[in-house]
Amino acid sequence: MSSSSLLLPFFLILFSCFIALSSSRKSLTNHPPPTNLPRSGLRLSLQHVDFGKNLTKIQKIQRGINRGYHRLNRLGVVAVLAVSSRPDDTNNIKASTHGGSGEFLMDLAIGNPPVKYSAVLDTGSDLIWTQCKPCTECYDQPSPIFDPKKSSSYSKVGCSSGLCYALPRSSCNQDEGACEYLYTYGDYSSTRGVLAMETFTFGGENSVSGIGFGCGDENEGEGFSQGSGLVGLGRGPLSLISQLKETKFSYCLTTIDDSEASSSLFIGSLASDIVKKSGGRLEGQVTKTISLLRNPKQPSFYYLDLQGITVGSKRLSMEKSMFELAEDGTGGMIIDSGTTITYLEEVVFNTLKKEFSSRMSLPVDESGSTGLDLCYTLPNEAKNIAVPKLVFHFKGADLELPGDNYMVEDPSTGVLCLAIGKSNGMSIFGNFQQQNFNVVHDLEKDKVSFVPTECGKL
User: Under a CB-based contact definition with an 8 Å cutoff, are residues 123 and 23 in contact?
Assistant: First the structure.
């Protein structure tokens, strides 16, 4: 079989965080691990930033593409965007929007007594931070700004601390003996303040003391306002995973148009055990485990070793160098929870597009109205439509995606689109392609596993 299948709602169509530009390579040498971490690990609910809004599936993807455009800029990646030729088209992907810092929010609390707030989850950066009083330059956020003076568990991090040395840019306030930081995300977005330690409460009941975080009193950038801070889950020493001394975490993302179930984040042993315990595994589906690569130039990112792509029954004829991570740190593919669709290097995408279209029976839609690069015009009457299967060949496993993870319909304009874009400088495996997989990161073994899962049932 060389096609994939799913049922779209309007036609019976069948077919078989802010990312830091620089990140520290220093290790934590004298920072003690946080205390009171539950042995069973942590389970946290994730909410898509557009959850609860009256938006169609394609509209959510369009908003995600706009957020992804700003995020790609932070990565130093150039997104080659498909835009409408009609200047008055409201769906034009170059319409003015606020750049988002990620796609999923997690609820937590900070301090003693705990103060609740929502933070953006970001697998592409390390620092945990929130805005703090007294705020000299802060953006509007959905919850009150944290006041460290009202917390009995707040303490500033000293200049000789391993946490301070782990920062990409820091200075020492000699008068207070405190470590001050500046953490930049590119395109003029940044957070500046004092590095501190606090008690964080996850899931309303799991309190963990001694977590280092940025207490920001100067925060610039339009993309932060979706949450009241950010939780980095990158590979660097400042990330939540690193500070908890955990070697596994996973996230399980429901479909982008799911209006009821929430996505989940698992830290510790739950990451690999939760699917078996909950019975949420999709029957007949096989777990695929893939090797992770490291990039010394960008040590926070989780790189996948992509070696090829198959469309239908044909493996694309491409030079291996088109997928490789170069010695200068460019190229390669990262897996990212904060980018909506997958982006492929332009030459790779164009080859995929040509092969994909050669196997489709529908006419190509040239309007560019959706912001996606490759769309097809649907027939007026419902009928069965076959589309090619799509397989990503990674080192360790071949990952065949379900049709729902790469095709999307826009009923208002009558088109069916491929949810993949093109870029220059780096490829990104986006969260739309990760839907209904429990994506397990094993940092000890440098592996990532895709476990087919009904994420809404976990």
Answer: no
Tell me the sheet residues that pair with 328: none
- C-alpha to C-alpha distance for 250 and 419, rounded to whole angstroms: 23
Q: Strands 420-424 and 342-345, how do they pair?
A: parallel
What whole-number distance in Å separates Cα of residue 356 and Cα of residue 377? 15
Q: Average pLDDT of each block of 10 consecutive residues along the chain (458 residues)? A: 48 38 44 62 90 89 82 63 38 26 88 93 91 90 92 96 92 92 75 95 89 93 77 94 95 92 93 83 86 91 96 93 89 92 95 96 90 92 83 96 93 91 91 96 96 92
What is the model's pLDDT at position 33? 56
pTM for the model stands at: 0.87
The whole-angstrom separation of Cα 48 and Cα 58 is 15
Residues belonging to the active site: 122, 336
DSSP SS3 for 224: helix
For 446, counting Cβ atoms within 10 Å of its Cβ (0-12 exposed, 13-18 middle, 19+ buried), the class is middle
Instruction: Give me the amino acid identity at 401.
Output: L
CA distances from 401 to 17, 429, 436 (A): 24, 12, 10
Whether 129 contacts 87, CB under 8 Å: no
- pLDDT for 454 equals 93
- Tokens matching residue 179: 């470590």
- Comparing C-alpha atoms, which of 305, 407, 341 is closest to residue 79? 341
Separation between Cα atoms, residue 434 and residue 14, nearest integer Å: 21
Tell how strand 306-311 and strand 390-394 pair up: antiparallel
Residue 382 Cα to chain centre, angstroms: 35
What does each C-alpha distance from 326 to 30, 124, 331, 424 come to in angstroms?
34, 19, 6, 13
d(CA 430, CA 340): 5
